UniProtKB/TrEMBL annotation:
One of its GO terms (cellular component) is endoplasmic reticulum membrane. It comes from Nicotiana attenuata. The lineage of its organism: Eukaryota, Viridiplantae, Streptophyta, Embryophyta, Tracheophyta. The gene is LPPG. Pfam families: PAP2 (PF01569). This is Lipid phosphate phosphatase gamma, chloroplastic. It is found in: Membrane. Keywords: Hydrolase, Membrane, Transmembrane, Transmembrane helix. GO terms for biological process: lipid biosynthetic process; protein N-linked glycosylation. It is a multi-pass membrane protein.
């Protein structure tokens, strides 16, 4: 047995004060980035395989990599409550949770606006009312639970928003030109990777094509 001290994997190990219902709720809120990564993007690749979504996920990974570089460079300590939370061995500036959520919120808002435009403002408002309150709650949860200071979460949020907006511009003004090449590549053909960003209404397109395909199969069976 090694003599080195043991360290736990703390991906979902979020602590809150026993009996604190708000703390319990905010502990779950702080896990939203994990749910988005594991539930959202993995299921998106399995069932959708959209290049836009894949590059969205790549952007979030790059953002978190940048976060780790900054943390190791500045090595700013977490608040004093880190001792109770057993996270004093990690650095707090900028908050990775805040950076993640604001990158996600900015990117998905810009993507929704680009896809829907001014015609479908009601659908855009649905995204705004779901995503942004959750992003703000994530900030609040990290401070309330004692994992970060106010300055650390605002630094993370600011960096995430800047990186999210910048990555969106890069993907949709530079990298999107390579989407057709990726679709036709060996990787794209093997994994059925596709780009539907040129379609005004993907759900309508898929609905109509699914119905047309079913009618075609029915006609062939009848023959």
């Amino acid at each position: 047995m090694s003599s080195y001290p043991l360290k736990a994997v703390t991906l979902t190990h979020v602590r809150y004060q026993k009996g604190d219902q708000l703390g319990h709720f905010l502990a779950w809120v702080s896990l939203v980035p994990v749910f988005i990564s594991l539930g959202g993007f993995i299921s998106h690749f399995i069932f959708r395989r959209e290049l836009q979504g894949m590059f969205f996920a790549i952007g979030l990974l790059i953002s978190q990599f940048i976060n780790e570089i900054i943390k190791k460079s500045f090595q700013q300590a977490r608040p004093e409550t880190c001792a109770l939370l057993e996270v004093c061995d990690s650095h707090g500036w900028p908050s990775s949770h805040s950076q993640y959520m604001f990158f996600f919120a900015v990117y998905i808002t810009l993507l929704t606006y680009r896809k829907l435009g001014l015609i479908c403002r009601n659908q855009l408002w649905v995204v705004l009312l779901l995503v942004w309150p959750m992003a703000v709650l994530t900030l609040y949860s990290r401070v309330y639970l004692g994992y970060h200071t106010v300055a650390q979460v605002f630094a993370g949020a600011t960096l995430g928003a800047v990186l999210g907006g910048g990555w969106f511009w890069i993907v949709n003004n530079v990298l999107s030109g390579f989407f057709p090449i990726l679709e036709e590549s060996a990787f794209g053909r093997f994994f059925y990777v596709k780009d539907t960003s040129h379609l005004p209404n993907v759900l309508k397109f898929e609905y109509e094509n699914a119905r047309a395909a079913r009618k075609h199969v029915s006609y062939k069976r009848a023959d």
